[in-house]
Amino acid sequence: MKKIFLVISLLSGLAYGQSSVQQLAPVNFSDVTITDPFWKSRMDAVATNTLQACILYTENRTGRIRNFEKAAAKTGKHEGIYFDDSDVYKAIEAMAYSLKHHPDAAVEKKADEWIAKIAAAQLPDGYLNTYYQLTGLDKRWTDMEKHEDYCAGHLIEAAIAYFNTTGKRLLLDVAIRFADNIDSTFRLQNRHWVSGHQEIELALMRLYHQTGNAKYLALSTWFLEQRGHGYGRGVIWDEWKDPAYCQDATPVKEQQEITGHAVRAMYMYTGAADVAAVTNDGGYINAMQRIWEDVVHRNMYITGGIGAQGKNEGFGADYALPNESAYCETCASVGMVFWNQRMNMLSGESKYVDVLEKSLYNGALDGLSLKGDHFFYGNPLASSGGYGRREWFGTACCPSNIARLVSSLGNYVYSVSADALWVQLYIGSELNTKWQGADLRVKQLSGLPWHGAVSLQVEQAPKKKFALRLRLPGWLSEAAPGDLYQYINNSVGLPVIRLNGEVIGFNTDRGYAVIDRKWKAGDKIEINFPMQVRWVKSNTALTENKDRVALQYGPMMYCVEAADNAGKAWDFIVPVTNDNAASMASASVVNYEAKLLDGVNRIEFDVLALQGSADGKSLQAVPGKRKAIPYFSWNNRGAGEMQVWLPTAIRSVKVNP
Amino acid sequence: MKKIFLVISLLSGLAYGQSSVQQLAPVNFSDVTITDPFWKSRMDAVATNTLQACILYTENRTGRIRNFEKAAAKTGKHEGIYFDDSDVYKAIEAMAYSLKHHPDAAVEKKADEWIAKIAAAQLPDGYLNTYYQLTGLDKRWTDMEKHEDYCAGHLIEAAIAYFNTTGKRLLLDVAIRFADNIDSTFRLQNRHWVSGHQEIELALMRLYHQTGNAKYLALSTWFLEQRGHGYGRGVIWDEWKDPAYCQDATPVKEQQEITGHAVRAMYMYTGAADVAAVTNDGGYINAMQRIWEDVVHRNMYITGGIGAQGKNEGFGADYALPNESAYCETCASVGMVFWNQRMNMLSGESKYVDVLEKSLYNGALDGLSLKGDHFFYGNPLASSGGYGRREWFGTACCPSNIARLVSSLGNYVYSVSADALWVQLYIGSELNTKWQGADLRVKQLSGLPWHGAVSLQVEQAPKKKFALRLRLPGWLSEAAPGDLYQYINNSVGLPVIRLNGEVIGFNTDRGYAVIDRKWKAGDKIEINFPMQVRWVKSNTALTENKDRVALQYGPMMYCVEAADNAGKAWDFIVPVTNDNAASMASASVVNYEAKLLDGVNRIEFDVLALQGSADGKSLQAVPGKRKAIPYFSWNNRGAGEMQVWLPTAIRSVKVNP
What is the Cβ-side half-sphere exposure of residue A632, based on CA atoms within 13 angstroms? Predict the structure, then answer.
């Protein structure tokens, strides 16, 4: 624990102080052009179909934009739910990120239109919330659960994103006015307020870094510090939910375990990490270490999804991770990406990026159809056949959330610290940033997630010696930090790394291969990640997965879906044991199929298939084959049975289900 | 077909004409006191818990009563859905029926309060609909789908029921004014109007019989005749649903098959039967014969439930009757009871009562929890474990509908014709009515649905000779008319009937045993219905039930529920064949368990249970036992697996589901 309090050095490119606990900083997505075949197609789908879906539903099929028009006109009936303004802001944020690398005049025009309506609706004092402006301003700030500050947070994030892409500051000025209004309404009067849905904390930290104005840091900290003192008791929670639902049972720094609503938790800890990165506040960091372990060691699905329960959209008992009823909200996986990035920034430990990668490639990406026009709100790990993505939701947080994540993917590929460039994710891309006062340009090619060949070509580099820190993905060894999931068959070991064609040795540090040298244009690193089928088992405490295995290949979890298996996905066992796991893995056939699901690896493996005898009076287990596809790509060929966790033994059956 | 046009004779006790096609008339429930142990407990549950649930949700938890207050005050925002007035009326109707045999001053006071509010809300011209009165009267009668006439129909039914129980005519006067307003708005101007949800037709026929005013007969007929001419095209259906959804694709008399929304269909055909009973219109009767056969031979579940599809709350393709996703709305089974009673009245054929009984004891009664405080909207025939009754629904048609059916159960037990008393259902009861100008009093005791001993004691009878017509239930021979379902094991035959202790012979006619004599006080009929376990199979066209059997005992369908079977209901086969069906039936143990589910027969029978071997690598079918309970009583011990149709052969499995 001690090392994370060490101040390593000045981070270049960061606006904040030199004495930060923060060890590294992400390279902003605006300096990273994604060229990766896999991810480029996801981003294109978002830039076209997802944004169009957001526009269609935000503007036409629901009253979200009309609410701003009515608020500006000071007349009309509010349509929808009290938090619907946030979806407009998140859509603008996604548009802003997408416009950076996918210029689209029509999308930008639409965003400008919306922003003009938003600005027109703002009150002279800076307040902006169409729900209260249309149902009675006398009621504003009377109900902590009504998401006024949550909507403000998303306004701030959208405003910053749009300003940074377009240079247009109308929305940023709106956001600043509202932030100042909130600051004077609450912090400056020390009027207690427990946010009913955390979000404003992380948003204010963005505004602090954007403007350099310390009052936003102070306000973010103030919001965090409001929690756990009973300020909401009798006001919201007693009537509505338990304080633990909203991480309000104890002060943040004293929290011992993960509780409650998953998205609220992720956003809050992200904000706390952002504050700690500036203030070096060990209280937050200690608490988050404990809570992160509670999440990852006892409460996280193998997909990186979190929040097992629908009833609280959040966490249940430790190890209670049912598969078919898994809630695993898309937004919660998006939040896991945010939070784990911050935890990595604070510690330089790769285990956080392992979790980030797991959530990104599985739990989050599953929320989006291949075409980008259908969405999962929840992401179960098994389906009896009736579950499918939908065009939109009454509570529509997920579509714009996955859109803003995917279109800002470049944020998660590279980081920098005082003396190193960190390669966090192996995603084909062109890095072109300023670092150490010089230009740094690197071109990455990656075969992941389908094969393990990766290359990094330096095109321009500072003259000074620096380290290239190459993340050694957790899936080379263990599935997740802690002992919740373990591989059955052993890894084939570390990757071979070549520098300019020659195999080189390397040191490892906190999960990274470190190659420290003076780099010059033309230097080329080639990495060959050993890829193989990995069988994964669960800690025995996770009783839902007793006698079950999952199938992993690289960062991707796989699933068996009806469409590849004659309409069935629940009718076999995988006879994997400790003894035969290696041979069963190597006997599995991994095939990249370019025409399947926009191009995926399909894995064929041996099973014992259960089938009735001719007379239907008995049943045999006969050798057979089944095919698996990446989990994120299921339900793109209609609804059907699906399973991630595959049985290894027959304990019970349903006949003719 | 011909015989149903024969006018049999004058029916005593009927207000309408002597030349009616109607052969028999039901004895009104007010002349039938239910004493039956099984049904009395259901009626008590309705009189207490169900009515209280209706009051709680109608008045407090939703704005249904507030809407009337606001309409009276001509100010305020309408709460809920545009058809919510109907739930108030149906609750009053249920209260009225219940008050007849369960006087309850508090319930009557509540009904009086509501009725005063309803009356206060009525406009001077007779119009009454809180939705339009609160959202804009200029829009009234502009959208055929907005249920204004549907609500009017339920108002009329409630008003008649309440008047007949209490003699208070405030609501009846309200209903008459609204009916007159509708008559002058539409029929008298021949302004076309296709009801978006049929109901007013049958209600107007009640009003016709109540008042003797022929204009309500004319208006009911007019509504029926509006359908099928395209009057709704471009007005409602094109924008909303296909005309067949609402039985508006062709004129009623030309309809060839069942289509669309199940409740709309049932209510319409009930109204058409009521009109035909007075007007002798063979067009309606012919059409209904065809449609009834289409329902019962190709589109009805073994529970008497109809409307397989959720998407249209109605009928799908012939024989497309999936079990787990079966919609089978409670209200549609209530409608089946209504319609089949009318079809029996028109024809004197017992097959209609067979279907009525099937729907009543299974598809309808399943909608109500044993305590009467939880409800099913849909009634599937299988559950993977997640399905359960709920306290209320957004669209809350079902709770008050099952309440009014159960509390008026006495309507379905006896009928009279010119020369006969018809015993339709074997339900313990005291009949006390005027017939043939004399008092007729009969006391029935019945062991059904648990055992077959029934007695009927004449306590007072007209001096003239008349026939006692005792229905010979269809479950003595075949499961349903037509060949959709068939018994595998043979019946043990007709019942033994004793008159004053002596076994007598009897003639049968249209499904009734006919005992024609001069009856005197003290005469006692004893019937011993042969009860046995019946295995039922489906027509092969019903592919969902391939290799499956259902279990029936008397009128009750049985199901296997997790609670009686170590938490599983899908893990076995019933090895029933044509050859062993009789022996498997007689080997089954039928046990009345007084403490189980308020007292039910539980049936234990032989199965081959599927279980994994010790190492989990193979599976065996081993002899075992399973227990079944009456279908209506499932889901009263928590949610769990359930099946009505039990597999007889293994065709596929789910492992560790």
Answer: 34
Question: A652–B656: do the CB atoms touch at under 8 Å?
Answer: yes
Query: Is residue B73 one of the residues assigned to a domain?
Result: no
pLDDT computed for residue A12 by the predictor: 32
pLDDT value for B480: 57
**How many angstroms separate the CA atoms of A635 and A645, rounded?**
17
- The string of pLDDT tens digits covering residues B556-611 is 999 999 999 999 999 999 999 999 999 999 999 999 999 999 999 999 999 999 88
Start-to-end CA span in chain B (Å)? 51
A125 in B contact zone (CB under 8 Å): no
Q: Is the pLDDT of residue B630 over 90?
A: yes
User: What is the rounded average pLDDT for all residues in chain B?
Assistant: 93
For residue B451, give the amino acid letter: H
Selected residues 307-366 of chain A with any CB under 8 Å from a CB in chain B: 325
H or E element: which one contains B549? Answer: strand B548-553
Retrieve residue B146's tokens.
Answer: 């907005």
3-state secondary structure B378-409: ECCCEECCCCCCECCCCCCHHHHHHHHHHHCH
User: How far is residue B407's CA from residue B99's CA, in Å, rounded to a whole number?
Assistant: 9
Q: Which domain covers residue B576, as residue numbers?
A: 533-652
Q: Classify residue A561 by burial, with Cβ atoms within 10 Å: 0-12, 13-18, 19+.
A: buried
| Chain B nearest C-alpha distance from A592 (Å) | 29
Among residues A550, A517, A544, A567, which one has the least CA distance to residue A643?
A550
Q: Do B547 and A617 touch (CB under 8 A)?
A: no
Cis peptide before A449 (omega within 30 of 0): yes
Residue pair A530/A495 in contact by the 8 Å Cβ criterion: yes
Whether residue A444 is contained in a domain is answered as no
Question: Distance between CA A130 and CA B398 in Å, rounded?
Answer: 37
In a domain, residue B597? The reply is yes
Task: Name the stretches of chain A with pLDDT < 70.
Answer: 1-21, 234-241, 478-482
Nearest-by-Cβ selection for A647 from B613, B620, B655: B655
Q: What are phi and psi of B568, to 5 degrees?
A: -130, 145
Residues B150-194 have pLDDT tens digits of 999 999 999 999 999 999 999 999 999 999 999 999 999 999 999
Q: Give the gyration radius of chain B's Cα atoms.
A: 25
A570 lies in some domain: yes
Element housing B631 (H / E): none
Beta-bridge partner residues of B589: B604
Distance between A555 CA and the closest CA of chain B, angstroms = 27
Q: Which of A572, A648, A657 is opposite residue B570, by nearest beta carbon?
A: A657
Amino acid at A569: A
User: How far, in Å, are A309, A450, B582 from residue A237 at the CA level?
Assistant: 19, 47, 62
Facing residue for B649 by CB, picked from A611, A612, A657: A612
| Inter-CA distances, B629 with B406, B551, B556, B626, B641, Å | 21, 10, 9, 10, 13
Q: Is the dihedral of CA A574, A577, A578, A582 positive or negative?
A: negative
Pairing of the two strands B420-423 and B429-435: unpaired
Chain B, nearest residue to A571 by Cα: B654
Q: At A195, is the secondary structure helix, strand, or coil?
A: coil
For B38, phi then psi, to 5°, come to -65, -55
Number of domains in chain B: 1
Q: In the sheet that A466-471 helps form, which strands lie side by side, from edge to edge?
A: A25-26, A414-417, A420-423, A466-471, A512-517, A507-509
- Look up the pTM and report it: 0.78
The SS3 assignment for B413 reads: coil
Interface of A with B in 530-589 (CB under 8 A): 547-548, 568, 570-573, 575
CA angle B140, B145, B148 (to 5 degrees): 45
What is the pLDDT averaged over residues B72-87?
95
